[in-house]
Write a structure and sequence with these properties.
The protein has about 210 residues and is mainly beta. Helices cover about 10% and strands about 40% of the residues.
């Protein structure tokens, strides 16, 4: 009945799983993860595919993380599902979260909510177009750096956003390179915008800051 905006799945390792079974390499030592670290691993999967009622995200990519990099989907057989967080748009137009526990098969609705579209009004946001989407978040990370994440965006939306940036005075910093999933533009006032499209998550990341001299 609701629009799902994000899904998180959490797991725990089954008892007795060995490092040899997992075949996980520690990126710092290039050796197998020691057996005694495995019980503390809590793998999780998340995706940011927005699905309206009646739609499906079947086939969408998910990221998995457990302090190192997975090497095979067969590793999922060595884990047990423990909990989930489902983020959805409520009737008040805000993002709500319901949590599910596999241990007791119970659901709990969080009292905390998030705004669906967060935008700041300052000199930085006046230089760039607002992403044309329902779900976005803009944050002035530092005095001289604006960061934006815009979700539920297609690759065509990404290209249209770049076109809008150039209509507002930005020029491609690397015109001889193919425009695929990233764009860097500069304007006459010495500001640089970086726009990156993450295809399997359907969102764009935007950074605007003073161009380095």
């Amino acid at each position: 009945d609701y629009t799902i905006v994000m899904l998180e799945l959490y797991f725990k390792m089954k008892e007795g799983v060995t490092s040899k079974q997992l075949q996980l390499i520690d990126p710092f030592t290039d050796e197998l993860i020691p057996d005694d670290k495995i019980p503390d691993m809590e793998p999780y999967v998340y995706d940011w595919i927005v699905s309206d009622p009646g739609e499906t995200a079947e086939g969408a990519d998910c990221y998995m993380d457990y302090n190192t990099y997975p090497t095979s989907t067969d590793q999922c057989d060595l884990m047990e599902f423990s909990s989930a967080n489902i983020h959805f748009i409520g009737e008040d137009g805000k993002i709500h979260t319901v949590s599910y526990s596999a241990e007791n098969c119970g659901y709990a609705l969080s009292e905390n909510t998030e705004e669906l579209y967060v935008w700041v009004d300052n000199d930085y946001t006046k230089m760039i177009p607002k992403p044309n989407t329902r779900i976005a978040s803009a944050d002035q990370f530092k005095e001289d750096c604006l960061g934006v994440e815009a979700y539920d965006m297609s690759h065509d939306d990404f290209l249209e956003y770049i076109d809008s940036c150039e209509q507002m005075g930005f020029q491609n910093k690397y015109p001889n390179e193919d425009l695929d999933y990233s764009y860097t533009g500069t304007n006459a006032n010495g500001y640089e915008i970086d726009v990156r499209y993450i295809d399997n998550m359907h969102y764009i990341e935007i950074t605007l800051q003073k161009e380095e001299q």
